Amino acid sequence: MCGIFGYLGSNQQAGSLILDGLKTLEYRGYDSWGVAIKKNDGSLYIEKHIGKIGSASLPSFPAHVGIGHTRWATHGGVRNENAHPHTDCTKKIAIVHNGIVENFETIKSDLNKKGHTFKSETDSEVIAHLIEEIYKTEPNKVKVMQKLRSHITGLNAVITFFPEDESFYIIKNGSPIVIGEGDNEFYIASDASAIIPHTKKVYFLEDNEMVELSKKGVSLFDTKGVHQNITYTTLTYAAESTEKGSFDHFMLKEISEQPKILRNIGETQKTEIKKAADEISSSYGTYLIGCGTASYACLAGTYLFSKIAHRHVNFAIGSEFSYLLDFLKENSLVFALSQSGETIDIISSVKKAKEKKAQLLSLTNSQGSSLYRMSDHNLLLHAGPEKAVASTKAYTAKISFLYLIAHQLAGTFEKGKINLLKAVDEISQIIQNKSSIQSLAAKMKDYKSIFILGRGVSYAAALESALKIKEVSYIHAEGFAAGELKHGVIALIEKGTPVILFNPEDETYEDTLSAAHEVSARGAHVIGVSSKNDKVYDTFIEVKNCGNATIIPNVVIAQLLGYFLALAKGLDPDKPRNLAKSVTVK
Ligand code: M6R
């Protein structure tokens, strides 16, 4: 969703620095962008555009302070006027905003009556005018911000820039904001990955905190405006891990990183995995929650915990969980999975679970993220920054953790590790031979629909595989439980319909093979993914048996298929239409 990058310091090229910061945040998804920069001659320079930043540059002028924003449209269409930053009537205040001001219409009509004129259709612009109005009678800017906060409703992060004294005021309730302190310079961003090339010393704002940032330094205030000590966090990942390197796309880079990441999990995370297993063991009941890809990892988790550890865990989609938490008790455990740790549907549900005093264990890829900070116990994926919108390495890392936690619960960690390492070898093979998947994609690119079938944990893998294919290639792809075929799905099969079948040699093998025959008899083109070939398959992709970890290489095949389908269709796999990397707005 929207990205924010601000700078105050001694670098006289603030414009290009801010633009570069915004480019780092491009992966979040956006449809317009803008900057407000105070020139050294004292004037405020504002530039806004619809579309991507691409190779755009700003006119070169000396400047050392400003703010930029990438907008993902919610209120008001994709128009220059709706892009941020927004200014008040006097142009002495510029704001950027992430979130939704739920009561903006009421505020706007009040401000209209007071003579304010609006240039955009956004909820965000009312903030600039409201600040202008409050500032007329309240000279203390900290108090202005407190009043602003009491007027607006919804989950919001607002950065207010006062060019006159080069100060920023940041309030946050919901959308993430992080500030970074370098050598006599300060950064503000919606995501730490934009700050990491400059400094690793960061502070993640908590909900309802306020930060004043000026040449004098950083001041932190609590809800009541009382000054607080600021304790910085040191980020641990390297700046180069946020770059594409020699790869054409982040998606391919991230797919290719999986063997190393998964091997590392197997070899170094035993202690953390044991702690998580102990939490689950001592809980009254465990609820796995996640959204999108993370939800499919959770669903796979229910099968893995059942099969390997003989333990029932509940599962809910993050956005549905708040309607399902009636049974939570003080010693219930909510196990939340989220790559970003910022997904609003998870955060909102988890807040409600915490009100019921449930314990929160999270598995995220973002140290310091909102979910990370809210959790009683944390596990980190250690997958490195994931920038492609389609989640790949974070998914397989999540499955690896769940798989090993299940084995730890069963007292068979070492067996799990051996299978995970087998899966790692399989993934390496698949990546090495990816040209065969590229050829398959070339043949499949004009298909209208692709179906993916599996049973047991392979059903969860089928759902994730379908999501991967549809979100980057825009081909309608659906995952089904193979046993559901005769209950309706088979009506969709006609001559030539591609059906990918996950058929590992486990307890599901024979029944899944029957499904292959059923769709084949109706003319489907059957693509069998298995350790054992069968004449019913029109195309066979061999994946060696790695026990229940076989779903990991199986999904990697779908990741590559999605990637190559996108390329074959001339699409950018890193930035699928309408999607944002981190969903921070409901
Ligand atoms: O950051 P999260 O893991 O919480 O994100 C959840 C989903 O938004 C995310 O997995 C989404 O479904 C991806 N686009 C899938 O590739």
Automatic annotation (TrEMBL):
**UniProt keyword annotations, A-Z:** Aminotransferase, Glutamine amidotransferase, Repeat, Transferase
Q: InterPro entries given for it? A: GATase_2_dom, GFAT, GFAT_N, GlmS/AgaS_SIS, GlmS/FrlB_SIS, Ntn_hydrolases_N, SIS_dom, SIS_dom_sf
What range(s) does the Glutamine amidotransferase type-2 domain occupy? 2-216
- Catalysis: reaction(s): D-fructose 6-phosphate + L-glutamine = D-glucosamine 6-phosphate + L-glutamate
Q: Name one GO molecular function term.
A: glutamine-fructose-6-phosphate transaminase (isomerizing) activity
The parts of the chain that form a coiled coil are none
Q: Which GO terms describe its biological process?
A: fructose 6-phosphate metabolic process; protein N-linked glycosylation; UDP-N-acetylglucosamine metabolic process
Q: What is its EC number?
A: 2.6.1.16
Q: Kindly report, in one word, the top-level EC class recorded for this enzyme.
A: transferase
Domain SIS: from-to ranges: 276-415, 440-576
Q: Record keywords: rRNA-binding included?
A: no
* Protein name, per record: Glutamine--fructose-6-phosphate aminotransferase [isomerizing]
